[in-house]
Q: What sequence folds into this?
């Protein structure tokens, strides 16, 4: 089955700086890669996703890149703000179930 | 309903008792997932239902855990003879299909005392 690894497990950044989270996946047939944000005590919510026919996608301060050859994808958050502090999960799907990474706890320091 | 609904929100049970957790997915969603999240931890996959296909039970941690999805809609996760290590938040999610956004419920916080 699909195995998704996520790094780093924790990330502390100064407000205004950028944050980058990286994930690798094992199944070359995976074709859907969403990212979820989970604030403390809340449910995970989708923030951005990318499909295998696209190399990069951007939505305001958030961008995701996908390298199918290397089987890795990354989340980039620019101009970080305190409200970006949360746990972020990457996931991959191969027309079957979603497999999640272990999560990255992002702390934005004021 | 507008989203995925789970009940109860909180459940405190005595060790050794059985519990049932319920998930009402978004209407029309064919895919349904159960995850377990211990305090400060990631999303541990438990079981996956997709349409009328046989469920993927590969994540169930022991034979004390079982789940059903009746009529392709509501799902129930049952934990028999609960143990303290079963204490966690149990999250349900549904999606229109395998490769689309998964919407999570608010979770059931299970505490085994």
A:
């Amino acid at each position: 089955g699909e195995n998704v690894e996520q790094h780093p497990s924790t990330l502390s950044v100064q407000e205004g700086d950028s944050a980058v989270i990286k994930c690798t996946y094992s199944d070359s047939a995976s074709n859907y890669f969403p990212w979820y944000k989970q604030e403390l005590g809340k449910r995970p919510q989708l923030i951005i996703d990318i499909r295998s026919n696209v190399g990069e996608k951007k939505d305001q301060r958030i961008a995701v890149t996908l390298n199918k050859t290397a089987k890795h994808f990354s989340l980039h958050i620019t101009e970080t703000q305190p409200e970006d502090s949360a746990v972020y999960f990457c996931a991959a799907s191969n027309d079957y179930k979603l497999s999640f990474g272990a999560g990255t706890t992002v702390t934005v320091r004021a | 309903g507008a989203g995925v609904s789970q009940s109860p929100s909180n459940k405190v049970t005595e060790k050794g008792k059985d519990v049932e957790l319920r998930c009402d997915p978004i209407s029309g969603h064919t895919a349904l997932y159960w995850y377990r999240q211990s305090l400060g931890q990631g999303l541990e996959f438990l079981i996956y239902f997709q349409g009328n296909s046989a469920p993927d039970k590969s994540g169930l941690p022991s034979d004390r855990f079982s789940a059903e999805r009746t009529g392709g809609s509501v799902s129930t996760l049952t934990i028999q003879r609960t143990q303290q290590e079963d204490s966690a938040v149990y999250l349900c999610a549904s999606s229109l299909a395998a490769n689309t956004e998964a919407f999570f419920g608010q979770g059931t916080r299970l505490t085994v005392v």
Chain B is about 0% helix and 45% strand. Chain B touches chain A through 23 residues (CB under 8 Å). The beta strands of chain B are 5-7, 10-13, 19-24, 31-37, 44-50, 65-69, 75-79, 88-95, 102-104, 108-112. Chain B has a mean pLDDT of 94.
